[in-house]
Amino acid sequence: MSNVLIVEDEHVLRMTFQQFLEEEGYAVAVAEGYDEALSLLEDDTYDVVVTDIILGGKTGIDLLRTIQQHETNCQVVMITGDPSVDTASEAVRLGAFDYLPKPVTGPALKKVIKSALDRSELVRERDRYAAQIDQARRELETIFNSVDEGIVTVDAALRVAHVNEAARSILELPEGPLGGERLAALFPDELAPASKALEKTVTSREPTRDTRLEVALSNGHPKVLRVSTAPLVDEGGAVLVVRDTTRLTRLEEQLGETQGYHGIIGRSPKMQQVFDLIENVKDTDSTVLICGESGTGKEGIAAAIQKLSSRADGPYIKVNCAALSEEVLESELFGHVRGAFTGAVKDRIGRFEAADGGTILLDEIGDVSLKVQLKLLRVLQEREFERVGDTKPVRTDVRVIVTTNQDLIEKIQIGDFRQDLYYRLNVVRVEAPPLREKIEDIPLLVEHFRKHFNALTNKDIAGVAPQTMEIFVRYPWAGNVRELENCMERAFVVCKDSEILPEHLPPEIAIYAADSAPPLVLTSGRAGRGALNKEQIIEVLKQTDWNVAKTAKKLGVARNTLYLKMKTFDLSRPKE
Hints:
The chain contains 23 helices and 23 strands. It is elongated. Helix content is 44%, strand content 18%.
């Protein structure tokens, strides 16, 4: 409801005006003179004030002046029984909305009040919009000056328009206002490529992306910068965005130019051997057997082989053989026809058929049953198979890669794996080394996971403390790279500091600090795959009082692997 104040010294007119306006649904207050009107204006806010010019000691003009000093959005309508051009001009000059001569009729008053209220709403809307624009401008200025990237905008004549604080720091620009400065005069010769990139963008309206600059500015310290430019819409100018990547570049240089190979992190001699094997096998269709403990990155090696092969554009089908029962796995691999078994309501192609022309990865081949092994042997020998419940052979052109964390030779000896299938699979054998055998890769992996979890958790952890890295190097990592990744994820969850400290690690890893007993140094070869000898196992069993779980952890092998070794060597706790 709109509020209207009527200021009129004649009682009858005051009441008449009030009645006119209350008929329209307005909230109407009345005042007899100047002083009473001021009192009401102090207690309430009015959208429109209707005042007579003649008010006794004071005039409506005086009231108008007072209102204009305090109420910028209150519309004032002047009324007088003695109109003159001078009075009307003075009222309008001072900001009166309108001027009505007496006698004032109801329709005329209602019409002018409605117009005044419309004007009042427009002014309010303008003020709201201006406030929003001002708020948005302040927010943009806050963002502009708080981002880490340096931002410089120029107009069409390459004069500087805006510079944020990050740009001043990164580019070492002078303090004080820079607006209107010529870019060429502001930027030193070392930043000429950035100036040229901006000039090109202003002229061509085309952006430039991530240009690398190595500069030595006023303080003489070399910096590595990445600059990008983009045109400003509808303004003819352009914006320069600059990032200081000096620290990251220096770190990468310290770690070496090559940290890994097609997504596989590592530069140790053992990983170089793996990379060499991938290079040798990538241009062939030979079957590849990738062996390694759990968590050593066997699937990543398989992905690199597929990505580099001539079949990279073909299907890449992955099957986790350990997760499926014999019946389900057989159907998944080879497909089935309708009615082949309960629930087979329609024909379905298998993974081998879906992978035709591409590559199939059989993960954990050691868990496949003897029945399915026989069908796999036929696929490898004859490049054909039969769907479950069908007798019609299906031809397939598939490159096969398999992985295992088990000792297939031992499984052959106990009758759980076909020897002829093993020979078919073991055409090219790639050994994924455990983490304890490539200790020099641990800092690279830690840095990789640090970047990953910083991005994932929106944190800015700078690295790991030296004592934490010492623990990482000493710990045997039975779970290999996967265990290291899980350890880093846990550390990121609990870390509130700028670097990861020993107290952020799981207790079973943190105990490998420098003041604890040194971890067992294994002999050459792969633990759990023939590298552990009988004397070695007995020695650690004695240290742990024949506790198999603790022994497996100290040896850095899985518990079931240790049990198999103890069975092979016929080891049991001596009777007291």
